[in-house]
Amino acid sequence: MNALTVSGDRAASKRSFLADLMTGWRASLVVGLVCRIGYWLVAGMVWDDARIFQRYAENLVAGHGLVYNPGESVWGFSSVIWQMIMAIGALFPVTDGPIHAARLVALVAYVATHFHMAAIVDREVSQDCQRLTPWLRVLPLWLLAVEPRTVSFSMSGMETSITLLAIAWIWNRASRGALGGAGVLAAAAVLVRPELAIWGAALLASCLAVKPRIAVKEVGWGALLLGAVVLPLSLYYGFWLPHTVSAKMAGYQVALDWAARMDAISILTPLNPDQIPSALKLPIRLTHALLLAAIVSATLFSRTLTLGSRAMADATLIHLAYLSSTPSFFGWYRPPATLAVGILAALALARLSLHQPRVAALALAGGYGVAAAFALLMPVFLLRDRVNHLAIEQGVRGAAGRWLAVNSAPDATVYTESLGAIGHQSRRRMLDYPGLVTPQAVRALKDTVPAQRDIATAIPMLKPDYLVLRAHEVDQCRSAMARAGGYVEVASFTAEPPGGMLGRLLRNGDRDYRILRAVRLGGVREVGGGRP
């Protein structure tokens, strides 16, 4: 055996080792855990909405009941299960116990989601795909592991992680035709997020098509579980749905053109629309439209898929339609669709590889190119969220809340859109736009023409003691402030953007806040607003 042969064998062995490593489930699981733990330790970001869950949890443990403002029963959280997880975290005597509990649960949920997804793709991807089979099976796992938005929202106190777990669990059960417990699982998914009723209904529909009697029984068990949870909450709060639903429907009235609808389902672009150069927006939107159409159509009409996975493809399509039609759209709505489309992409490529193996191989390479791009963007997202956590969440919103805690009366009322961090730090009675915990604000919005509904609408009715507004909202609210008796600015909090790339990472819309006090309370402008 000559040196060239030995060298060639070693190179082939090295390539085989790398391929086995990349196509095994362990590598993607470890990388995903490293990304999430790294985000926790480096970025430390806590999204504003997570602080809403936290204040509910801490009030419950303190004996005030499951309320945001003590003495006011308003159902202002969207996830019952996540709220209970936060409440358990609040039992531990550590700072931000609910947030730490949320992050630990997010890690466990990621591992469980990973194994459910692996089981789905192993079941659905045929061995007939030959050399592509191992690469197809782990593509969704790599996308889940390194997609920046999924990592960010999962580890920043939001319920994203258990939402993904609910979808993967439902899909896995549907694809293997396991009927036992389907109703309970569907009901639990609704308690995770109301819109997951789409996936629960798809699961029960697939059961109904196979064994109608068992399906009816499962629907009964699911209804029993939902009733056992929702009925007491409805009696406690006096309403059968989370108040957040009516608040968002009343407050976030945005005209959705086709571009906004495409941006809502741009699941392969982790950047916000305002961060994308104008010249690239149209090609990216068209590419997303074509990709989604190809993926969904290839799976919807595939006879090789199990009945359950076809039902899940239907649910994905409905979920995407929901995303493109909701005016109250936020970035944390995208990860569930990203997970579903990742699974469907692998199944669609498996079907394509049976007829056009070269085209499938090229498309598969493109999928791994997207995963590689996600991985390269992860450090940027870590840095972005670290900057925003320190400068915005702690330095501006947190500082404004701390100022109110020191300088306002304990019974003062505070009106703002940024309910989470400011309410958490100030511990004052909060009134908010669009009315997540303020039914009076929702009534004011509903009494106004939809096109004219904004943060200023409820101020004349509520007449709060303090307003905490972004700089651009101050001008927007001047007329409403005058009708409410007048307000004077007493403090400002501004995050000066650092130079270079860091400055571009700062959320400009949130870097300048003003606190205004009602004229009836007296006082003049104070010197030395916060400048972190």
Give the strand order, joined by hyphens, for the main sheet. Answer: 2-1-3-5-4
Which residues form runs of ≥5 with pLDDT under 50? 8-18, 524-532
Quaternary organization: single chain
Q: DSSP helix count? A: 23
**Structural class computed from helices and strand pairing:** mainly alpha
Coarse morphology: globular
Cα Rg:
25 Å
State the major sheet: 5 strands, mixed
SSE pattern, N- to C-terminal: HHHHHHHHHHHHHHHHHEHEHHEHHEHE
- DSSP strand count: 5
Helix content: 55-70%
Mean pLDDT: 83
Q: How much of the residues is beta strand, in percent? A: 5-15%
N-end to C-end Cα span: 69 Å
Tell me briefly what this model is:
This protein is mainly alpha-helical and 532 residues long. It has helices at residues 3-23, 25-43, 48-61, 80-90, 97-124, 133-146, 148-154, 160-175, 182-192, 197-210, 212-237, 243-251, 258-264, 278-300, 307-325, 334-353, 357-407, 419-426, 439-446, 459-462, 471-476, 478-483, 501-505, and strands at 413-416, 429-432, 466-470, 487-494, 512-518.
